[in-house]
Amino acid sequence: MYAVIQTGGKQYRVAxxxxxxxxxxxxxxxxxxxxxxxxxxxxxxxxxxxxxxxAKAHVSGEVELQGRGKKxxxxxxxxxxxxxxxxxxxxxxxxxxxxxxxx
Length: 103
Description:
single chain; mainly beta; four-stranded antiparallel β-sheet; 0% helix
């Protein structure tokens, strides 16, 4: 069984046992998390598509890790003007292990 969930403005296809990196959630490592915004649930026998979400469906998981991604460098430059600007960014993320999909 698999599901398509939405969190942090992005959609993820998940199955039981998957580990996914989502936008940072304000939870501690080891805490439980429930995703109620389930867009679709599918299995070998049937597929249920929500309008816009599937009623009474939810996906449960456990927070494995809170971290920050690789540094991304943004460099702006204008020739012959003496302008150069270098900034970096590290996006925070949360790794969640999916434990259960309920329909």
